[in-house]
Amino acid sequence: MSKFNRRQFLHTSAGFAGSVAVMSAFGRPAFAQDTAVRHFWWGNPERDKRTFAVIDIYNGKTPGVVVSGETLGFADYFTKLTTQIAGGNMPDVIQQGYGVLFEYIANGAVVPLDDYVGKSLDISKMDQSAIDAGTVGGKFYALSIGANSHMAVFNTRLFEEAGVKPGETFDPFAYTYDELKEFAAAIKEATGVAGTDDNTADYQNFSDFTVQKGANLYNEDGSYGPTQEIVEEYWSTWAGIRDAGGTPPGPESAALAGVAELSQLGVVTGKSAMSYLWSNQLVGVQGLMQDVLGAAVYPNTPAMIPGSVIQPSQFVCLTRDSGNPEAATAYMSAFVNDLDMTAVLGLERGIPSNSEVRAALEPNLSPAEKVSVEFFDRIQGKTAPLTAPPPSGSAEVEQTFERLAVSVLLGERSIPEVATDFLNQAKAILARA
């Protein structure tokens, strides 16, 4: 991204940022001239614009410090980070997700923040739940930059055309897979558009389903939680929705297995009326569409046991390779506390964990952001407890699930056969991790 584009975005957002009183949550420390801080994150065009803009704000407020930004798409981010870890040249500040945090703590790639709290790092206004989520083994490693949960988004125009009315014929916060099959097929019949994406290869949905069935994705000893019956039932459930005409054809869905780009979601491409994502992605997806999106929880089993959790959408972490940890943590602190910077960041990475920031943002929320905040209000008390980060090897297990689910979508092997194969591979991966 060019410097011109980053500056251009900053100018267009100046009115929004200027509506918030210019202040900082802490007195900015003085640093030696030309202290360099590198910040690396996975992003998309919207996230990158906002992040480069706040880097400009911070550099303008903090003489002697030059923060530079580096960004890649999600699919390439962790590959590049692995190379940097091996080479001993990680950036000072990296973005992390809850699901992989444990692995980076275990291999020493990120370091505790405790020594900087109350000094260069201010967490005094952060929600305790966010602090707890970033604490592993009694040490504070990760600074939450937004709360997040699983969300289904739906095209309100297509739902209306099919007579599927939220709050009347469809409860966005309490509906079953059987109800999804019924209204997804009805949407296809009325509009010619499949009612829902096919989540056969969606590991997020599978993890929720596992909890809804009374199991854990990973047990306390690090072993795998889903049983043969759970895996078979999950894939059979989606096969039933697919056979009813509620999803795109299996080969179309198979081609998208593991694809993380928002532009490929069914609601964006027009291939379906409902897609599934993390709630912090709603704003980005709405920016790719003209039709208005609504928000819903993931479908549930008849027992209506909560499966999704509320967790930090992303963290920022200090790496072991940082040459300027005080400057890096001061920048991290501003990233979550400075009202000028957070005004530009908005809710793109999730609901802020700082109460003052939430209050300052509220009057200026876009329609999509208001949908996101309302969704969070509605799911309070309807989510599962946040569990410990997954063990080492969990990323490979997820990739294996996606790969084998493709054979289900293509009808190459029976569901029981693929389920057995998957569980055997998952257990072997975790045993050697």
Automatic annotation (TrEMBL):
Keywords: Periplasm. It is found in: Periplasm. InterPro entries: Bact_solute-bd_prot1 (IPR050490), SBP (IPR006059), TAT_signal (IPR006311). PROSITE patterns: TAT (PS51318). GO terms for cellular component: periplasmic space. The keyword Protein transport does not apply. The keyword Transmembrane does not apply. Belongs to the bacterial solute-binding protein 1 family. This is Sugar ABC transporter. It comes from Devosia riboflavina.
